[in-house]
Design goal:
single chain; mainly alpha; Serine Threonine Protein Phosphatase 5, Tetratricopeptide repeat; 6 helices; about 80% helix; globular
């Protein structure tokens, strides 16, 4: 909980920081607070659609929550964002996860 508390304190100072929100979402996943994590990832991607890493983590979370249609949507959006950013590594990771889910 110490990491979560620290991240929350940092977010009080910079409440729109995508890095901090992403990090907090990952911490929430570790303690199985999935809805909190989902909300944070969605906030990150709404405010910073170029924050490519959050697409993968959000989609993977949705897969684990047995929401495959939503996961596919986020993988697709992530692939578009990665393509736009010319981030081939992220694109390939998103595509592989997408294809695994879609098959």
């Amino acid at each position: 909980m110490e990491r979560i508390d620290k991240l929350k304190e940092f977010l009080k100072v910079t409440p729109t920081d995508s890095f901090l929100k992403h990090a907090l979402a990952l911490e929430y996943i570790k303690i199985e607070k999935y809805e909190e994590a989902r909300t944070l990832f969605e906030e990150v991607l709404t405010n910073s659609p170029d924050y490519i890493g959050s697409y993968y983590h959000l989609a993977k979370l949705l897969e684990n929550l047995e929401l495959p249609d939503l996961a596919i949507k986020w993988y697709e959006q992530g692939m578009e964002a990665a393509k736009k950013a010319k981030d081939n590594h992220a694109y390939n990771e998103l595509q592989a996860a997408y294809e695994d889910l879609d098959s």
